[in-house]
Every structure is written in C-alpha cells, then in structure tokens.
Design goal:
This protein is 78% helix and 2% strand. The chain is mainly α.
Length: 426
C-alpha cells in the first residue's frame, strides 16, 4: 500500500496546512463545546435549563446539516466556507464571554449551531479533493489525530486560563484562536483541490470524464445499508453526547472551582487516545474493513455508562474516559469512511456527510435534554444507566444489520484531473 508521502509532492504544503487547520479549528470548537454545560451550571443554571440551552444549538445544527452538505457539494470555494464558519464561531464565543444571561447564551447557541454543520463536511471534502480515494482513509485518520492534538492543547490552555481568570476566559480564548485557524485555512492552495473529486468523484461518459451527480433521493433513500447506518449513528450519539456534560454538571454542584480542570482532564484523556490511534484506525480500516472497528467502538459505550454509576472518585472517572477516546476515535474516522464507501462516484459525498451529521446532531441534541430531565426527576445514576441501554441497542442494530462496506481497499476513482487519476492508479 502506498503511503501519504507518495501523493504529489507539490501538494505537501497544502496538506500540512490542512492538518494545521484541523488542529486550530479543534481549539476553537473545544472552547465552545464540553465546557459550556459546566460553565452554565457554575453560573446557577438548573440541569433542565442547561439541557434546553444545549438542545437549541443542536436543533439549529440538525436543521442545517444536510443542506450544509449540499452547499459544500455545490460551492467551489471550500476555503471561504471554512473562514466564514470560523468567524461565526468567534462571534458566539465573544457573546458567551460577555455574560451568561439567557439572551446571550441562546444567541450564541444559534450562531454556533449554524456554523458547525459546514465545518466537518468541508474539511472532509478538501481532504478527498486533495488526496483522492486511495489515500483518503489514511489522511483522514491523520486529520483526526491533529484535531485531537488541538483539543488537548486547548483543554490545557483553557484549564490554565479558567484557573487564573475565571470561566469566561474560556470563551475569550476560543475567540482568539480563530486567528491562527484562518491563517492555516488561507495557506491551503486552491489549485491543489480537485473540486469534482471533493464531491465524491467523477464518472466516464462516452470516453469523457464528467462530474458525477446521482439523484439525491436515490442516494439517501435507495441505500438500505446507509439508512440503517444513519440510524445507528443517531443511537450512538443519543447515548454518548450527554455523558461528559453530565459528569461536569455533577462535579460543578459539588465544587464549582474544580469543574473546568476536571473537564479539561477528561477531554485530554479522550483526545490523547484519539490522537494516538486515529491514524492507525484509518490504516486498519483500509486493510481489514470497517465493521470490526465499529463493533469495538459501539461496544465500549454501554460499558462506560455502567462504570460511571459505580464510582464518584475523580481519578476513576477520568480513567474511564479512555473508553470515550476509543469510541470517538473509531466513530470519528470510520463513519466518514463508510459514507465515502457508499457514495463513491455519486457526486453526493458531502450531502450524505451532512445527513450523517444530521443524525449525529439530532441524537446529541435529544441526548442532552433526555439526560437532563432524567437527572432532574430521578438521579445521575438512572440517567447513565438509561443512556447505556440505548448504547447497547445501537450495538445490536450495528451487529445484526450493517454489512462490511469496504469492497476493495486499492480501488481508484475517476477524477476530472488527469494528474490526480494517475496518482490514484499508481
């Protein structure tokens, strides 16, 4: 199997810029995500209200995910999409840094929820457009590793900033980190991105390569495996999304000062696991298939939920985050590979990425509300056990109904660029 170094050497500068973009953009998103629940709990928000606030952003995200994927398929200027979305995230961060009043929190959630849907599909599209199908598995795994390294760096930075300057400094830090993000995006050369390939490849018609453009309805509704996989993704995140915020809330009520450092430690553990294993996951998935890895990732989630109910010891809870790292490393890499498998030569890669993100966002949004209400009416223990039961259901559906989607790890794809086609067939 060829390695990433065999990609056109002229693209290496852009590939390094893409990896830097994943690093710095992760910094921005880390500051706006898992810390928000602990921040609001520390500001006196009740669990139910915290869940509603997080759900608002999730609803906006769900509404926009699939349309965002379709827009990414159509718009040639992928870099402009990334810059604009990063700027909107920065505005949301500034609002949160000003006040925890409901108007600011809800407005920021609308902005963050509106920008987020464009980021994942665009980064994956740029990757596909730069390295092609043959190298996509490996490069996407590397991207996730840089993303996780950014999460670790930001978590450490935020822990220090919140300790010395308070929790509002978390969001100021996230806004400032938008600057290196934009610089990294601008360092990606537009000419290094094959825009037909970035949509999911091209097809040959009467000896000429033309942009592939399969029917939206056929792509989304005509593939039973894809539909079931989207359902599994929904269940996975319905079970997973509320777990870490609930831990932050639980500790915030006991000691508000320790909430941010605890969340930083949990994020660091999770992201170090992803950083270390994401590239290997991409290689393994390309050689041995997607399903074995997915079964492992889905299988550790109910175990994690159960373990959370057995201890309140801070060190033990942080150690349990190793399982979160395993689950998220596998899902983050392999789910996009499954989408790439099912949309090859359709021209709808980003649209279906958006549909996956819709399923993920819907599951995550409902998870926070579901978990918050269970805590409010019952207990943290009941909430974790209920989320674990949903995770077990997701594992069962995946095991019984999803076949292996990798058909040929060495398959090459037609593109609109002769040079890229020669690369892929090498």
């Amino acid at each position: 199997m060829s390695n990433a170094a065999e990609i056109d050497p002229g693209k290496q500068e852009s590939i390094h810029a893409l990896e830097a973009t994943n690093f710095f953009l992760a910094d921005v998103q880390t500051g706006l995500g898992p810390f928000l629940a602990a921040y609001l709990a520390g500001a006196g928000w009740e669990p139910g209200r915290v869940g509603v606030a997080l759900t608002l952003g999730g609803i906006i995200t769900v509404i926009l995910q699939t349309p965002a994927g379709a827009i990414v398929d159509q718009v040639r200027s992928k870099r402009l999409i990334l810059v604009a979305a990063s700027a909107v995230l920065a505005v949301g961060a500034v609002l949160l840094s000003i006040t925890a009043a409901p108007w600011a929190v809800y407005t920021s959630q609308v902005l963050i929820g509106g920008a987020g849907p464009f980021l994942g599909p665009t980064l994956a599209a740029v990757t596909m457009g730069m390295v092609g199908v043959t190298f996509f598995d490996r490069q996407f795994g590397k991207n996730q590793s840089f993303n996780s390294a950014g999460n670790v760096a930001c978590a450490l930075l935020i822990a220090g900033m919140s300790h010395f300057f308070g929790n509002r400094a978390i969001f100021i830090t996230a806004a400032v980190l938008t600057i290196p993000t934009v610089l990294a995006i601008r360092a990606i050369k537009s000419k290094d991105i094959d825009y037909d390939l970035a949509r999911g490849g091209a097809i040959e018609v009467e000896g000429k390569e033309v942009a592939a453009r399969a029917s939206v309805m056929k792509t989304l509704l005509g593939d039973r495996t894809l539909l079931i996989f989207l359902a599994c993704a929904f269940l996975f995140h319905f079970a997973n999304a509320a777990m870490l915020p609930q831990l932050g809330e639980m500790l915030s009520h006991g000691s508000r000062a320790s909430a941010a450092p605890f969340m930083s430690a949990c994020i660091i553990v999770t992201q170090v696991v992803i950083m270390c294993f994401a590239p290997a996951i991409g290689r393994f998935a390309n050689l041995h298939g997607r399903k074995p890895l997915l079964l492992v990732g889905f299988g550790v989630l109910p175990v994690r939920a159960l373990l959370y109910t057995l201890t309140h010891n801070t060190e033990s809870l942080i150690a349990i985050q190793l399982l979160d790292g395993i689950a998220n490393a596998i899902f983050g890499v392999v789910s996009i590979l499954v989408i790439a498998d099912r949309t090859r030569a359709t021209g709808r890669f980003n649209l279906v990425q958006g549909s996956l993100a819709t399923a993920v966002g819907l599951g995550a949004a409902l998870s926070t509300t579901f978990g918050g209400k269970l805590i409010q009416h019952f207990s943290y223990r009941i909430s974790f056990l209920s989320l674990g039961a949903i995770a077990a259901l997701a594992f069962a559906v995946l095991w019984a109904a999803i076949p292996e989607t990798l058909t040929n790890p060495d398959i090459s794809e037609h593109t609109s660029s002769t040079h890229t086609a020669q690369e892929l067939s090498a």
